[in-house]
Amino acid sequence: MDLFEFRSIDGQNFLEFVIRFIFNFLIIYILAKKIYFRFRRKSNILFALFLLNIIVFFVCYLLQSVQLSIGFAFGIFAIFSILRYRTTSVPIKEMTYIFIAITIAIINSLTILNTGYLLMLFTNVVIVVFVYIFEKKFIRNEAFKIVVYDKIELTKQEYQSELIQDLKERTGLEINRVEITRIDFIRNIARIKIYYNASYDEGDAEFFIDDDDDDD
After folding, report:
1. What is Dmax (Cα atoms) for the chain?
2. CA 188 to CA 101: how far, in whole Å?
3. What b/e string do you get for 160-199 counting C-beta neighbours within 10 Å, with b at 16 or more?
4. Is the pLDDT of residue 73 over 70?
5. Residue 205 DSSP symbol
6. pLDDT in tens, 149-162
7. E-assigned strand segments in the chain
């Protein structure tokens, strides 16, 4: 169908675009929703992963007609690295997920058909599988909190197992190790940093400090 001397519909190209987009969305859904959000639980980053992936996919695919170079495609990374989300502090793990989301969009939009869809499928599956393996099996998501503790007699080295067990019972956390940062013999309290396995990143440390500790 021609309209004003322009080809308005190209069935073959449009079908290819739809297939690529659906495939790309399926991959980013698995990566962002099923993997990232399961372990990290940050809805604002989840929103960014979806939108960045989709926008980069559109930009790269639609600019193929002007011979989009690989240098220009990866220049998109430089743009986001310069912006660096100045309005907030983005942890390195979130930046890695963003990098992966953009990479997936570029791969799925610019893969040459001569290599076949099988290579594109294989590349995406490998990325998703490795992200899941490292997130689930290899990299322990450890968080910490700082607590004020009242049983300073358990802070001795020989009572460390009893100390950890008592902290587990009080906090309900699966504590891996503890670090005693301060002991106040006058007020009979200790300040302890506890490290535990977290199901998702809880961000900065949370402080459970008594009101009378503010006069330090």
Report:
1. 88
2. 51
3. eeebbeebeeeeebebeebebeeeeeeeebbbbebbbebe
4. no
5. P
6. 988 888 888 888 89
7. 2-3, 6-7, 142-149, 175-184, 189-197, 207-208
